[in-house]
Model the fold of this input.
Amino acid sequence: MFPTDDQFIFTYTTQKGELNQPLHPDYLNNKLDALSKKFGLPKITPHGLRHTFVSDLLNNGVDDLVVKSLVGHAETSEITRNVYGHVNPEVQKETVNHLEDYRQKTS
Done:
C-alpha cells in the first residue's frame, strides 16, 4: 500500500493509475443488493456485515479489548458490548446446563 494523507478501507485505482481513490458511498450497497437478488439472500449492508463480524467475535469469546481495537472503538467505550453483543441461544442453554451440572455435583 502506498501511504497518502487519506487512508480508506475500500478503494480502487483509476484507469489513470491514481491509487487509493475512495469508492462512491453507494458502491458497496449496490453490489450487496445485486448479490442478494442474484442468490435470493436477505438484504445486507456494509454496516450489517460489520455488526455480524463483531457479534460473532463476541459470541466466540474474543476479549472486548481485542474486538474494540479491530473495529476502532475507544477502549473506554461500552458500544462494543452494548450494541453488538447479542446473546446466543445455544450459549444460554449451555450455561444453564453447566449451572445445573454444577449444582447437582455440589448438593
